[in-house]
Write a structure and sequence with these properties.
7-stranded mixed sheet; 24 strands
């Protein structure tokens, strides 16, 4: 009898699923989104990998074999190269040299990388754009980066500084720029000059090659296997050398080329787990509501003999079918979008390569994983629903809303909260001090993540008990907006478990997005500070053999329109205790415009007579903060100063203590400046070149100082900040998927609630509430889910952001982007309200006669 009964129970669930496909859409939507984003990440990795490999040509396709020096490190000489060329089946062999040289003829330091390349043929790594490729000694072709930054063109001349024999002095070698090329190997990442191997070796004074590329005569490209006998012959021609196939080298280069993209994708994968977890929470809540709506049907099955175990099995099977169908739909949707991305990107000027094939293994795993997620989501609701009493068949459908939470759930929540607090306290107590190089940040961040995970589990467990207190605090103005507002508050507060199920998922998205924004703001502020310290100005001129610069140098430089922000300051050696330090009268407000310094304690504006600003290392060593006293010794005389501020890190130009100019003079320092800084008045390479020429014209003698470029490429200064912002933007976009899942959960919950509360809406209409008021009531209820989730999420985001910033970079100032967080909160409330628009419209059309109708 077991088989017919099982078939009856399963058949009833399948019939119910086919009769109401809308419920499949409701329960499967969040799982479909999870499958879409997971498989979308797989396709994104394929697109990025294919694009990078397609554009990256580190080793030309024609290279069949690559020979590199052996373990002794000696380069391959010209004689060995000739032996390789004589080897049978070798059609072509070229030697590679990688080096570089400073450029002479400027007051500022410039550098040109140098690389050997034939310039033409199948083994060339460069393509000529203008001019001619060097065909003899004393000539170079430069890439587009060098031409742009150094103002070069065919016919220009360059003076290279070559080390003299035995390291004695430097020898100047003047070369002519014969042409402009573009590299397919480095994508012109740095200024580089090119010439054939023998000519470049003569120019650099080297007699060997760091690598030899070989093209065989058996194939036109490097694809395919290389005969073992040929490899052995080459090893005999170059004893001790490493011989690898071109395919193996290209594969390694491709792996290295996509390593950075893979790092980002791995980071994205971590956060995809968050979106998947959110989908499980939403699906669990949805299944619980759906099963509660079908309580009479389940009770009838119990009444005719279905056991709780078989009923639960049937419900789990139903959920599994929903998960598999949702997974398959999500995979197909992601595959279709991946095929559309390259042509769409091409229309916007971005070249992306299409994925070569459908990754069948990943697709099957995604569908199977979605089915497993459905099982996890449906398990608890099915067990609860299977215990329904047969007497429920005689009653109306239950609301599915139980108590706010049992004693066991509350105890579990408090236990998780206590564990989260203990872990957070442990990480706070172990925060590193400035200069601590042995601090294990990875372990500390792992502890913070575990603490945050426990805190979120506590939020899930205690959510039903938190809904009403939070709601009572934020719903005061809603109660004054009329009946619709009061009913919306009562509707959400009357079902705290359901409100918590939806709001917790919203809170997860808000917490992660808010934490990312806050950490980005704090670390960006520190990055700007670091840039201000490491590259405060475009040019820095400091004393050569003398201890100070010409007093008129700053005024002379300021007279050139090509220069701006010319600043002169002094530094001197002082003693604090038994340690020597540097004191400076640099005006900290004159550091690079737009990249300002910040104070960790006190205010930089408080620097006045008898006051000092202290860098982080000395502040920590002395145990001082703003308002404390320090004593410095200058030339044997003690100087007592009050700390106006402490810096979060090192000081500009290596300064440890900063005082006003009058204070440094009172201490007895020479009035002549020791350093002069200046910026180019115009942005871009040409502006810097003109500024360099102005400095060269001004420095008429070595006694006036030597110039050094501190920020040769301004965009490069912001590279760390740009990378940080790019990574954070990527993370925020992925975390937005969590919010998308949450919004889908709000829409699903609202839709099911409208069906479940049909009699309630009919009764309200019968009592005189207009359809528009019902519409507003349901919309406000959905908006309240966003409000509750936003408040709970930010309550976790801010303290954990502070802890993450302190762990990641102790010197970083904690900065809360209030405007961005407010925008996220507002947008979330509006989006969740919009998610309830269609269910609200359906509710507003409820007829008053439903109040007296029987439910299913």
């Amino acid at each position: 009898m077991s088989t017919p009964w099982r078939a009856t129970v399963l058949g009833s669930q399948v019939a119910e699923l086919l009769r109401r496909p809308g419920r499949f859409a409701a329960t499967g939507l969040s799982l479909l989104i999870a499958a879409f984003v997971v498989f979308g990440a797989v396709m994104a990795q394929q697109i990025i990998t294919a694009t990078v490999v397609e554009k990256f040509r580190g080793t030309p396709e024609a290279v069949s074999i690559v020979v590199t020096p052996g373990d002794d490190g000696q380069d391959i000489g010209e004689a060995r190269l000739r032996e390789i060329r004589k080897t049978p089946s070798v059609a072509e062999a070229v030697g590679r040299i990688d080096g570089g040289s400073p450029l002479d003829g400027s007051a500022v330091e410039r550098y040109l990388a140098l690389s050997a390349d034939p310039g033409t043929g199948a083994l060339a790594e460069v393509r000529l754009l203008t001019g001619t490729y060097p065909a003899g000694p004393g000539r170079l072709a430069v890439n587009t980066r060098a031409a742009r930054e150094y103002g070069l063109a065919p016919g220009s001349s360059l003076t290279l500084l070559r080390p003299g024999p035995d390291g004695e002095g430097a020898r100047r070698v003047t070369v002519e720029v014969s042409g402009i090329v573009r590299s397919t190997a480095t994508n012109d990442a740095e200024p580089t000059g090119y010439a054939p191997g023998p000519h470049l070796g003569e120019l650099l004074g080297v007699t060997g090659y760091s690598r030899v590329d070989i093209r065989t005569g058996t194939a036109s490209s490097g694809t395919g296997s290389v005969p073992a006998e040929l490899t052995e012959r080459i090893r005999q021609a170059v004893p001790g050398a490493h011989v690898r196939s071109g395919d193996a080298v290209r594969e390694q280069e491709a792996r290295e080329a996509v390593a950075e993209a893979k790092d980002v994708l791995e980071l994205v994968t971590v956060f995809l787990g968050v979106a998947v977890g959110a989908a499980v929470l939403v699906a669990t809540s949805t299944f619980r509501i759906v099963f509660a709506r079908r309580v009479r049907q389940l009770a009838l099955l119990r009444a005719i003999g279905a056991s709780p175990r078989r009923l639960a099995t049937a419900l789990v099977a139903e959920g599994t079918v929903v998960g598999l169908l949702a997974g398959a739909t999500g995979v197909l949707a992601a595959w279709g979008c991946a095929r559309l991305v390259p042509p769409v990107a091409r229309r916007f000027g971005h070249e992306l390569s299409a994925p070569s094939h459908l990754p069948l293994t990943e697709a099957v795993l995604t569908v199977a994983g979605t089915g497993l997620l459905a099982v996890l989501a449906v398990l608890a609701p099915s067990l609860t629903a299977s215990r329904v009493s047969p007497l429920q068949a005689l009653r109306s459908a239950a609301s599915g809303e139980g108590a706010a939470g049992g004693v066991g759930r509350t105890a579990l929540g408090l236990l998780c909260a206590a564990g989260a607090a203990l872990l957070a306290r442990q990480q706070y107590g172990g925060l590193p001090r400035p200069g601590d190089t042995e601090y294990d940040r990875f372990a500390a961040l792992t502890g913070v993540v575990l603490s945050g995970g426990l805190a979120f589990l506590a939020l899930i467990a205690l959510g039903p008990r938190l809904v009403r207190p939070v709601l009572s605090a934020v719903a005061v103005p809603l109660r004054r907006t009329g009946a619709a507002g009061r009913l919306a508050v009562a509707g959400v507060g009357g079902a705290p478990g359901r409100a918590a199920s939806v709001s917790v998922v919203v809170a997860l998205g808000v917490c992660l997005v808010g934490s990312t924004l806050t950490c980005l703001a704090s670390l960006s502020a520190y990055e700007r500070y670091r840039q201000a310290v490491e590259a405060p100005a475009d040019f820095r001129l400091y004393a050569g053999d003398s201890e100070s610069l010409d007093r008129s140098l700053a005024a002379d430089l300021a007279s050139h329109p090509e220069l701006t922000d010319v600043t002169a300051f002094r530094t001197a050696e002082v003693v604090e205790g038994t340690r020597s330090a540097t004191v400076s009268d640099l005006d900290l407000d004159t550091v690079r415009s737009g990249v300002g310094l910040t104070a960790r304690t006190g205010s930089l504006g408080g620097l006045g007579p008898a006051h000092v600003v202290v860098d982080a290392d000395n502040a920590h060593r002395l145990g001082v903060r703003a308002g404390d006293r320090v004593t410095l010794t200058f030339e044997g005389r003690p100087v007592h100063l009050t700390v106006a501020a402490t810096l979060p890190g090192a000081g500009p130009y290596g300064g440890n203590f900063f005082v006003p100019a009058a204070e440094l003079t009172r201490m007895g320092a020479d009035a002549a400046p020791t350093t002069v800084t200046a910026n180019a008045s115009e942005d871009g390479a040409q502006g810097r070149i003109r500024a360099q020429r102005a400095i060269t014209d001004t420095l008429t003698g070595p006694e006036r100082g030597d110039g050094r470029v501190m920020a040769e490429e301004p965009a490069g200064q912001a590279g760390g900040s740009d990378d940080l912002r790019t990574t954070a933007t990527t993370v925020i976009m992925v975390l937005g998927l969590t919010v998308l899942v949450a919004v889908a959960g709000v829409a699903t919950t609202a839709s099911l609630t409208v069906v479940e509360r049909g009699r309630e809406f009919g009764l309200l209409r019968a009592l005189g509430l207009s359809g528009a008021a019902v519409h507003r009531m349901v919309t406000v209820e959905c908006a309240l889910y966003g409000v509750l989730g936003g408040i709970l999420g930010l309550a976790l985001a801010v303290p954990y952001s502070w802890l993450v910033v302190r762990v990641a970079e102790t010197s970083a100032p904690f900065s809360v982007p209030a405007g961005e967080l407010a925008a996220v909160f507002t947008a979330l409330v509006l989006v969740t309200a919009a998610a309830g628009m269609l269910p609200a419209l359906r509710a507003s059309r409820t007829s008053p006669t439903v109040a007296v109708a029987r439910t299913e």
